[in-house]
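pasting for the record
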Amino acid sequence: MMISESQLISMLDLQDGMNSRVSADWVAANNNWHRGIQVEGVEAIEHHGWKWWKKQECDMAQLRMELVDIWHFILSAAIQQCGNVTRARGQMMAELGVHQESVLFDNQTYLLSRLNLLEKLDLLVGLASAKRTSLALFESLLADCNMDWAALFGQYVGKNVLNVFRQDHGYKTGHYIKIWDGREDNEHLVEVLEVIDLASANVRDDLYSSLKARYSSVRKMQP
């Protein structure tokens, strides 16, 4: 199932809002969002496992979280390249509508159906190093990780709210506490997402309130 236009515009708006919290003029700052895709892509490779000389287990849950993080950077790069959310939405919907089955990179055509998950992650990192993205490749990665656009939307909204929460509580200044009761805030987010109604019109407020309640208990325990 293809992503809906309403889902895409919602995520673009959320990303624009998040980036604006860090810098009001973020679009003109010309940040290297593709470098972020590279780093998160390599982390995804680590979660998948790539060392042929030792036994490794694929941590699919963490790999999916990396895809959500990569999507943040893809959205940011699209807005920056297009200049605003409206034009980014149009370009991304048009690209997804083509339903490309292959990716051209370094004068070589890669047929997505013939690549395994690890090879697709390699290609994602390679494209990012050349400041390129492929929505067809990303969609194929989602499918390989048993995710669809609806699942990505839910997890993206959750991570976006967490990022806003971090900024509101001193992430940029270094005052934010990332470990809550012995676990990273990402792990708490996963638990919150399991009990929150992602279809609710108030989903962002509900998520924020739940995270705040957990974080407040941690703050009370600090000396």
